Amino acid sequence: MLSPVKIWRRQKEIRLILGKKGKIISWTKILTPPPDFKKYAPYAVVLVDFGDGTKAFGQLVDYEDRDLATGKKVKAVLRKIRDSYSEGVIAYGIKFRPI
Amino acid sequence: MSSVIGYYTTKFGELWDKSLFDLVEEAIKGVLENSRLERRQIDAIFFGNMLAGVLENNLHSPSRIAEIIGTNIPIFRVEAACASGGMAFHLANNYLKANPGKTVMVLGGEKMTDYSPEETTEALMSASSGEEQEAGLTFPGLYAVMANYYLEKYGYDEENLAYIGYKNHLHGSLNDRAHFQKKVSVEDVLKSSYVACPLKVLDCSPISDGAAAVIISNDKKIVGRSEKQIQILASEVATDTISLKTRKSLGEILATKIAGDKAFKESKLNRKKINVAELHDCFSIAEILAMEDLGFWEKGEGGRVVKTLVSLYDSGSGLAVNTSGGLKAAGHPVGATGIKQIGEIFLQLTGQAGRRQVKKARCGLTQNVGGSGGTAVVSIFAV
């Protein structure tokens, strides 16, 4: 269960990644998701190397199949991660868009 | 040095009429009977379990086990994700090193099929990083990321992975305790639907219920009296980062490599001496990586060698792998898996493996992995 406080705490890290550009170093497409992600499936998840010694996992959005490949350049964007729980806070986080 | 002197496993599978502690009770009674021991001869119990707290709101299992047995001995629950069983064994072995003349039961059990695949998938993800969870990743997804990296780096495709499912289902067909006892062809594996690309249903271990137990002892009288026994030459643990992204390489499980090197050093055995190995094939790619990381195959050649089926129980190559059917076909009731692996080596080295018996098996190895490689336990045995 993600409490509003937990969502707020995680948002401090999101700020540091937002807007960064990098390259896909590996990927997958999920067809059996956890319950909160069921309505998005199938969805692609990519591991991105920012070239500054840091990496991040995130879903790939606004893409075509040929974009789902190692070496593809992507940019970190802010997107809704999952729907709100009873507290009414929507969790936002990092996803990646091809550039 | 301590010895394994008895083993019992329940059937693994979708056991709807049995609760976690029904399975645990069956394993306790079975292992005491097989090793011809009374419950009062057990000095401590180590219990490997991952999900009872998350899925069933069911913690404090040691006290529950004490109630089943009717005992007041020390009982410890051990959690290390999918390596919970192997870790319980490792700690039990260390407990014996500190306590001469004792006999310990190592139990493992998991109840997973009371929930939907999505709920169980989410519960298992409690063993991954927050970022991985927020990306909507799953364990098949994390291993798929490793698989895609490996296939691309060494120039293989999904067919290379499919031979693991074929081999382990063939072994499972010879094990009456296995979750799946049906053979599948390489084509069946390739035609099965994707779970997380490039991994398909028949590349992935199933969600299973089950419990298993071994008895280990350094009590000379008890070991001397036991009909069947194998020696524990080494049991070593290594850890690594919980996040896959912070690992040195996506093409290896470093924790396996470190634990394996330590275990071989401790056992003073050459790798070529190992005749049977139970490896953590939660996904097809994991068995290939394990063979390389343990030094049985060169890094990168696993995708090619796997197609020669040298690891089949009757290949005569000198090293058979996952004769129980592995996690793939024998099933993967998380906490029980590491114990079943040790039990399979016990059966093989004492000539009790029936139709899947490997000829002249003298030394065996088990490798149990937690998460996407954050924990690894490697143990080595001999007769």
General shape of chain A:
globular
> What number of domains of chain A?
1
CATH-derived topology of the largest domain in chain B: Peroxisomal Thiolase, Chain A, domain 1
Shape of chain B: globular
Beta-strand percent range of chain B = 15-25%
Q: What quaternary form is this?
A: heterodimer
Number of strands of chain B: 12
**What is the CATH C level class of chain A, in words?**
Mainly Beta
Q: Which H/E pattern describes the elements of chain B?
A: EHEHHEHEHHHHHEEEHEHEHHEHHEE
How are the strands of the largest sheet of chain B arranged? 3-2-4-7-1-8-12-11-9-10
CATH superfamily of the largest domain in chain B: Thiolase/Chalcone synthase
> Which secondary-structure class do the elements of chain A indicate?
mainly beta
Summarize the structure.
Chain A has one helix and five strands.
List the helices and strands and how they pair.
The complex is a heterodimer of chains A (99) and B (383).
Chain A: H1 4-17, E1 21-30, E2 43-49, E3 55-60, E4 73-82, E5 91-98
Chain B: E1 3-9, H1 20-34, E2 44-48, H2 52-56, H3 61-69, E3 75-78, H4 84-98, E4 103-110, H5 117-124, H6 130-134, H7 139-154, H8 158-172, H9 186-191, E5 194-196, E6 199-200, E7 210-217, H10 220-225, E8 230-239, H11 254-267, E9 276-278, H12 284-293, H13 302-305, E10 320-321, H14 326-330, H15 334-349, E11 363-370, E12 375-382
Parallel strand pairs in B: 2-3, 2-4, 9-10, 9-11
Antiparallel strand pairs in B: 1-7, 1-8, 4-7, 5-6, 8-12, 11-12
Helix pairs in contact in B: 1-3, 4-15, 8-12
What do you see in this structure?
The complex is a heterodimer of chains A (about 100) and B (about 375). Chain A is mostly beta strands and about 100 residues long. Chain A has one domain (about 5-100): OB fold (Dihydrolipoamide Acetyltransferase, E2P). Chain A is built from one helix and five strands, in the order αβββββ. Chain A has one helix spanning about 5-15; strands spanning about 20-30, 45-50, 55-60, 75-80, 90-99. In chain A, strands 1-2-3-5-4 form a five-stranded mixed beta barrel. The mean pLDDT of chain A is about 90. Chain B has about 375 residues and is of the alpha/beta class. Chain B folds into two domains: about 5-115 and about 210-230, Thiolase/Chalcone synthase (Peroxisomal Thiolase, Chain A, domain 1), CATH 3.40.47.10; about 130-205 and about 230-380, 3-Layer(aba) Sandwich (Peroxisomal Thiolase, Chain A, domain 1), CATH 3.40.47.10. In chain B, strands 3-2-4-7-1-8-12-11-9-10 form a ten-stranded mixed beta sheet, with helices on both faces. The longest helix of chain B has 16 residues, at about 140-155. The model of chain B has no long low-confidence stretch (mean pLDDT about 95). The chains are: A mainly beta (about 100), B alpha/beta (about 375). At the A-B interface, strand 1, strand 2 and strand 3 of A face helix 5, helix 6, helix 7 and strand 5 of B.
